[in-house]
Write a structure and sequence with these properties.
Elements (H helix, E strand, L loop, with lengths): L3 E6 L2 E5 L6 E5 L8 H14 L3 E5 L3 H4 L6 E6 L2 E6 H7 L4 H13 L3 E5 L5 H9 L4 E3 L7 H10 L3 E4 L5 H10 L5 E5 L13 H9 L2 E5 L6 H8 L4 E5 L17 H18 L8 H10 L2 E4 L14 E4 L13 H4 L21
Helix pairs in contact: 1-4, 1-10, 9-10
Length: 353
């Protein structure tokens, strides 16, 4: 698994990998409703929040669906809604010129744009023509072998949702694209916590020698942060301008202020991981002076008296100079006082023998 370059703006490169900040993508592939003004506003929100990218989707319903009667039922804030899937994908589309306009707008905001390439080769070809930095492959396109062969020929990095396939099925398409930079995004379509299996992230890394990430399915954040601890290098999160907007996935998306807070929390969580060593914080080291202990007299001690548990104990604050610290308590037991101590006087090395 290696770090790879996504692209750059004004000479500032962005990478995906183990030794760089998590690559955060705002999932707006449905919540833009494929309305240009809405899509641009979502790009503004994502860029302002500090995301690295926005992720959309190419929809070509005739290439995707052989049965045009299939329906899709999804939740909204107003209750469930059922639509004809072919008709739905027919309006969730941009023309190529609109894609080019949106790509230029994202570039002007210094945020990357990429898209899922479901159904045939057209999405791949458009992504290449637009100069998108990578291809995204959704969870329901993982068994399309001809598409994988076309993706392999593109030479572009791949971000792949893998929650819907078995390990054996995953091995098939990974063998096809084994020369490409890849990130496998764990995801799931279940509300059963026992089936979410976030521990698959480090296993995916080891099994396929690739990078791993997490495609967050809804507004719930806990599993996002668990994935960070497990090594995710890419995170996707749904973003909407308003959950009451007609259409699917809006109910699953973060509002702009929620998304910005989430990005902040992600950045803080990845910083909090730190490194594989034991190291007190600067604040802890400073506070040691007040809260660690030294050995002190618990009563008046006369010259010549033997120090014991009956007349010394460990009490704050921390030792300084010649004073005996609490971790050296055993070294003073049985020693003789060369000078007198009053109660709570610190025991010093120079005053005992």
């Amino acid at each position: 698994m290696k770090t790879f370059k996504v692209g750059e703006f004004e000479g500032n490169p962005t990478y995906i990998g183990k030794d760089v900040p998590i690559f955060i993508a705002a999932e707006i592939g449905v919540t833009c409703n494929y309305e240009m003004d809405r899509a641009k506003k979502l790009i503004d929100v994502a860029a302002d929040a500090g995301a690295n990218a926005v992720k959309l989707a190419f929809h070509f319903p005739d290439d995707l669906l052989s049965d045009h009667s299939v329906e899709y039922t999804y939740p909204t804030v107003h209750g469930e809604r059922t639509e004809n899937m072919h008709e739905m994908f027919s309006y969730l589309r941009f023309t190529f010129d609109e894609w080019a306009e949106l790509k230029a707008y994202a570039d002007s905001k210094k945020i990357f744009m990429f898209a899922s390439v479901a159904g045939g080769f057209t999405g791949i070809e458009w992504a290449e023509a637009l100069g998108l930095p990578m291809h995204k492959i959704g969870a329901w396109d993982l068994l399309d072998i001809p598409q994988w062969r076309r993706l392999a020929s593109s030479g572009k990095p791949l971000i792949i949702d893998v929650g819907t396939v078995t390990e054996e099925e995953m091995a098939v398409f990974m063998d096809i694209v084994d020369e490409l930079d890849t990130v496998l995004l764990h995801e799931y379509h279940s509300k059963d916590y026992t089936q979410m299996n976030l521990r698959s992230l480090p296993y995916i890394e080891e099994r396929f020698e690739t990078l791993a990430g997490f495609s967050s399915p809804n507004r719930y954040d806990v599993n996002d942060f668990v994935s960070i601890a497990l090594g995710a290098v890419v995170l996707e999160k749904r973003l909407t301008l308003d959950r009451s907007t007609p259409g699917h996935h809006h109910i699953l998306g973060k509002h702009p202020d929620e998304f910005k807070e989430w990005v902040t929390n992600v950045r803080q969580a990845e910083m909090a991981l730190g490194t594989r060593k034991i190291q007190p914080t600067d604040k802890d080291i400073e506070e040691r002076k007040r809260f660690f202990k030294r050995v002190v007299a618990t009563r008046d001690i006369a010259v010549g008296e033997i120090l014991s548990a009956d007349n010394v104990a460990c009490r704050r604050p921390q030792q300084s100079g010649d004073e005996v610290g609490s971790r050296d308590y055993d070294t003073v037991i049985g020693r003789v006082a060369k000078t007198a101590f009053t109660k709570n006087d610190p025991i010093t090395q120079s005053a005992i023998e």
